[in-house]
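ok here's the first one, seq then struct tokens
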Amino acid sequence: MTEPGSDGGPDPTIMVVDDEPSNLQLVKFALMREKFPCNLVLLGSAAEALDYLGGHSVNLIVLDVMMPEMDGFETFQRIKDNPAWADIPVIFLSAVHEPRYIIRGLEMGAVDYIGKPMISQVLTARFQAVLRTRYLQRELKRRNAELESANRLKDEFLSFCSHDLRAPMLAIELTCQMLSDTAERVGSGEAQELIGRIVNQTRLARRLVENLLDMNKLDEGKLIPRPTFFAPRELLRGCIEDHRPMILAKGLNLDLDCQAAEAIGFGDREMIAQAIRNILGNAVKYAQGNVRMQSRLEGLSGEDAGTWTVSITDDGPGFPGGDAESIFHKYSHNNQGGAGYGLGLYIAQQTAGLHHGAISAESRPDDETTLTLRLPIVFRRDALPDLSRHSDASVRIIAGAKETAELLEHVLLEVGLVDVEQCAPACDPAQEFGADPPDLAVVDLASSAVETAPLMRFINRGHAPTRWIFFGSAEELTEVARLAGPAIAGLRTPPNPIAYLRTVKALMDDRLEPMADSG
């Protein structure tokens, strides 16, 4: 793209609008005197200007303020209201020098306000500055669009490559496992060792592929946690086993101090495991001889969520204190001559954020580096209620957001309830539940798609044996408080899985008792 008026570029078109012909001639003579290259369009009214803009391209508009029929301010507003003309710069050129006029023009969006009588050198200098600024703005916009397009192509390329690489990597890993089993049967220890190395390298390559896929999903906002219950201790042990071949190959000592037996986690198990594997892999990569892992539980009380803290320390070269935050950037590099941290720590940080947690780093150069992951997602194991008595209970979920509906459904499926289904958020409960009422209905009030009025009418008519759980804000739950009774419960949003299951148990246990007469 060539700048208007530059060598080889088209001369800019400047439209000057003034009801006084003498003023138009003065502008023309000023530009001629300064030999300012342009296509000059001189018009005597706002109506002519708007008509001209309808069929011509203009680089700069110069408006007189005091014009009959339609003044400069009204003309300016009409120009800005038209999307096709809105980005054309406008300069007010007027004999009216009152501050209120100048302020009004600039507040409306004019790029300049020049008083009469005009000085030719000042006039052309301001015209040149405005045209130059507009050119640079448009050039920046064009280049940003090109960069965005290139970035999209890059992301698509990485996504396709990562997706296509995942299958052959997994096939190689499975094939090597079969070879290892065969070598074990024939008693070939050397073959097993070699195959083990291939398996290890294949796993590392597969994790790189998974990181690339996760990065693309993060950038597109498509990496959404799918929470499940899991055992923190077993998750940690699985992460260690994945890295054991490299730990043995480097002759590292791994010390695990795990305090997690009494807890149960609730989060996206695979996503969290990938984050911990990435942190541990970084420690194994830079460790000189020792790696320490510590697992701690904090704040476990009743049905409230506690924090699971996993700290991984290595005795590698570390990084300068100022690099603590930068190591979590995409494709970050260390300053110790190493290859860098790649995507792993970036993925770990994003995973922590998606689980409302955090990750931090501390390092003493040439001493130790500790990365700490904190996730507020653990509960006391004995707080998980036993719902095995109610495995045959029918449950219907009503929620506007797909993620919320899936979460409310999945929690119940995980504890053994099998007859759990989602209903349309705007369903008619009389039609949906009338002939075959469920034992329990769970309603999320957070979405406007959920129509509460028919639900309230349905409940007020006393349709037992359905029990109801409502999730919502304090205000939303107050709306249904008048219906409170043994068959209705309210819980605050976002769903706490343990409180949710305990409420389900309390309501369903009551189901086994004779129903009170609803009157």
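and now the second one, same deal
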Amino acid sequence: MYDGVTTKAVVEELDSCLKNAKINRVMQPTKNDIILETYKNGERYYLEISTVPDNCRVCLTSHLKENPQNAYNFCMLLRKHLNSSKIIEISNFDLERTIEMKFETHNELNDIEIKRLYIQIMSRQSNVILTNEKRVIIDTLKHYDGDNRELLPAHTFKFAPILKTSFIDLETFSDFLDLISENGEELLSQKLPEIFIGFSKNFILYTIQRLEIDNREYSYKDLEKLYNYLKDLFIKIDTNKVSAVEFGKDYTIALESKKENLQINKFLDEFYYKKEQKDLITQSKNNLLRVVSNSLKKVYKKLENINQKLKECENMEKYRLYGELLTANLYKINGNQNLDKINVFNYYDDKEITIELDNRFSVSKNIEKFFKKYNKLKNTLEIVTEQKKETQKEIDYIESIIFSLENAKYMKDISGIYEEVSNNLVVKKDFKKFNQIHNKKEKEIKLEPIDILGYKVYVGKNNMQNEYLSLKFADRNDLWFHAQKIHGSHVILKTEGKEDIPEEVIYECAKLAKENSKAKNAINVPVDYCLVKFVRRMPNGKSGMVNYTNFNTIFVK
């Protein structure tokens, strides 16, 4: 994590790289991210400052973000004060997570002025503060009032109070040992971060694991070894000779030789870029999944109402029978009298039955009502039966979208699904949050081929890609694969006019169809395949839904 040790190591690299660099441009892609474009010795460097709580950092970046059409106020302020300025120093105090950048700039009279930019990397309290040479605040990214510090314009900038000990200031191992002894029997990974500035739990865990020191049962020699390692580490940080290394799902600074210049900055850039992309994909996927799932619930509710109407239609023939029997026996009774019930002979099964009547009306009127109800239910049955077919298609379609979403690994896949859903489902108002993250759509369908023994194979990642692959992209004599009777991707094998395709290639394509279907974890899955010319779009079907004939089936284990 971006602790005080990381901050110091990053600052050493930045100071050696960006000292005397010119500020070409100031950008603010989001309200929490600032990028300074710098220029030095014919090279451009982009310094990213992020105050996002979970990803707060300062490092050089090669992953630029799109700027908004209207610049943020703080961005305009930085442009006014820092454009064309020169970086004269980048530093931090001890292992504090506050970085000071000193700039040389010129005022309206062309006099040299010094501006300072303070960057605090403190999770939710992360901030960027611009001050003059005397540290009087010009403005801040976030206005904050706390810890006896007013981070507001016209106030003097003050560092956060230091409540811990500086390891760098320790002179002897005895001083280190005394501090460790005073803090009881806690784990080293808990004790050291509580005592020293800038030590994170992750940094200590990595260090003691590397030195083969037990977190709980440690000896005097273990502590001496730990002290010497840390002393050596901070000497090497000052001379820019340490590296960032992966540790579990996180990272830390270690006593490792650099394999390349700016290794720590490059490592952090890639680490946070991948993390942000993963977070963006997860957030976008969950937002879209929520909207689609709500639509599915509505359709299932619709199906429930349809099934209820169909259940009511089950009694349709009973009302026709009552009407017929009463009409046949009307000569035996006075049709104008009002009765609660009547017994009549059912000539269909040679039995007598009792028919309940509405005594508010005559027998003749009851006959009319029975036939009217029969005809109404008959018409309802026809309409609702068709509605059920359409509703079932809609359920299958939405479930196929959910399947595609659950298997989406890249933002471009989610973008394609978003475009498909927003064009087919009446849920656009529910996409407001998703749109804020998504920003733009992938307008063009781009498909990357998979090579199988020299043959190009394509796999659809959503319904739009499936339809494009099967009905537009593929040639008539290409082979089409799909897991049998289950949601999954369409797989296209480009035959290039060849008729004798090796069985191994066909099996591998079927395997791809299985692995990209809902049955990917099943033991033995039937996969159908046929020539593309036998694949047709399903009449009145949703995007990606097809019918196919003249197929063979292969079982994939």
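notes on #2: The chain is about 40% helix and 20% strand. The longest strand covers residues 22-30.
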